[in-house]
Amino acid sequence: TPLHPNHQENISIAPYDETCAHPGTLVQLWTFLQQESFMQYVWTNGKPLGLNAFIRYWAPESGRLLFLPLYRAYWQPDTFENMMGLLWVDHLELGHKASVHFVFRRKYWGKDRPFMAIQKILPVLFAPPLDLQLIYGMVHVNNRMALALLRRIGATIACEVPLWFKHDDGQYGMKLGYLTRAQFEEAHHGSHQ
Length: 193
Known about the structure:
Layout: E1 9-14, H1 25-35, H2 39-42, H3 51-57, E2 65-73, E3 85-93, E4 97-104, H4 113-126, E5 134-140, H5 144-152, E6 156-167, E7 170-180, H6 181-191
């Protein structure tokens, strides 16, 4: 099933789509996260994270998996400028569960493309070799767009955890969301009927 009815746009996912391979990806990713002011909120609880530490964060021994959704109109080549954001997997237990995180560039907020990108990544998480039964993540209590996106993919918002996130301007609660393979399969099957 095409992601877009008129075939004029495409979402590819690095590293699983070969056309997305790009040298210097982590350097460019770090630069993008600095420009979008995400670095201080996503990884470091308000403390700067230098480039070398960021590259070490993604080292193979970390066990993290990084997915980079790229959006392009059909006539454009895949380049890093087309990167929509990132989704990464942490605390991975093959065949069982993993923590999932995502960040999308501001220009894609409130649009369908983040949903389309996540829909393209979810089958990879629930199929072999990852074969996950459960994915879960924490979302800031005031992040309405991320919470709506979780609900749209069929995730359950289980609870609110107070004081989870600490930043220079205070501590904030987070909401715990999860999606089981059964929930994903039910939502995916229902969308094709």
